[in-house]
Amino acid sequence: MQWKLALHRPIAPRASNEETLRRNMRLGVANGVLFILADAFSDANLVLTVFVRELGAAPWVVGLLPSLKSGGWLLPQLLSAGRLQGMTYKLPVYRQVGIVRFFIWLAMVLVVWNATSLPVWVLLPLFLLGYALYNFTGGSGSVAFQEVVAKTIPARQRGKFFGARNLIGGLLSFALVSPLVGWLLSRSSPLLFPHNYGVLLFISFVLIGFGIISFSLFAEPPTTNPPAAISTKQMFAKIPVLLKSDRNFRQYVLSRMVTRLGGLADPFYILYAREVLNVPPRMIGVYLAVRVFSAALSNLFWSRVGDQRGNRLLIVLTGALIITVPTWALLVMPFASILGPEALGWFFGVIFLLIGLSVDGSNTASLTYVMELAPAEQRPVYVGVCNTLMGIATFFPVLGGVLLAQFGYLPLFWISAASAFIGLLLSRRLPEPRIHEERRA
């Protein structure tokens, strides 16, 4: 293995294109698996949600966690996309950002492990600041990640590529992560709060380090005759231009933003289970297992649909499933006074099955759809503009926290279901971009 990771040094390709592709596929799948495992140990909608709630966080702060995760990954992309467009090699940016993220997460581990010596009013802001910095720095390197994937993985193999990452990562999360999370957070755990969470974050830290190394070893071909770099000011000016001039792109952005609104309630399903349905703490591990296992198995189907039928159909199918998540929460409510906490906890767990079936496939489809929709020479700009706009939409769960505090769970679930339904209607009007990409090729 090549360990000479000078930040600006490209990795030479292998003897043949096929061998280089296989090597990149292996490294990319390893990168995805490691980060999926790391995310499972520190899941924003299950593990960290309960952590900050135990610290006394308000509902809007709980909603902020997944927003920081998704929004932090998406929002900064506009700032880096213009500069990245003019670079011959994109991978050095990913490496530089990876080193920064590695040490930010280490600082978070130290904060959580020493939480007993810190007052809550210091601990909670420090944790949120670290989490925000980790995700926002990751967002600044995510365009580089997507561009390297687009340059090295052919369009008809990207579904297989992301599907393998999600499948293997999901199965390992189900088999290894979920039981350990459930045990450490249960009443029989040998570690008390917050050291149980500190251990989970430390394991994530180790996995993140190896994940960064694996993708940093990609063999990236140079971009021939790259266009001139674009300043941040010019990038912001391109937002209204792209939305006005490219009708397909405008339809896509609108449909995805409305669909994101359907995820208003995502961070609050576990709180509803714990605080209203009174399900036992160990069910956090069960819900995590259900979600990652269903997500892993669904990728066997989603990757085939994406590769063979196109990502437009994948967006529509997963959009239909997203509607069922808040709908199931509404259906469970009448049974709250009939079933006991144990039976009700398992009944409610169908929500995490539906989330697992829909969200991973939807995210993969969205990522690859833009790669195919955008002209190759403008792909970093399209990706940066799109993901920055999507980053704004990821803060909808903060609004969900406000709605929850003001009106309760029932209106929140209804609004989520209605928004997801409208998002599905808009998604059905999207074109299939693969035909145009193949014509350009």
Automatic annotation (TrEMBL):
InterPro entries: MFS, MFS_dom, MFS_trans_sf, Sugar_transport-like. Keywords: Membrane, Transmembrane, Transmembrane helix. Its main location: membrane. It is found in: Cell membrane. PROSITE patterns: MFS (PS50850). GO terms for molecular function: transmembrane transporter activity. Residues 197-441 form the Major facilitator superfamily (MFS) profile domain. The chain crosses the membrane at residues 97-116, 122-145, 166-185, 197-218, 314-337, 343-360, 381-403, 409-426. GO terms for cellular component: plasma membrane. It is a multi-pass membrane protein. Pfam families: MFS_1. It comes from the Bacteria. PANTHER family: INTEGRAL MEMBRANE TRANSPORT PROTEIN-RELATED, MAJOR FACILITATOR SUPERFAMILY MFS_1. This is Major facilitator superfamily MFS_1. The lineage of its organism: Bacteria, Bacillati, Chloroflexota, Chloroflexia, Herpetosiphonales.
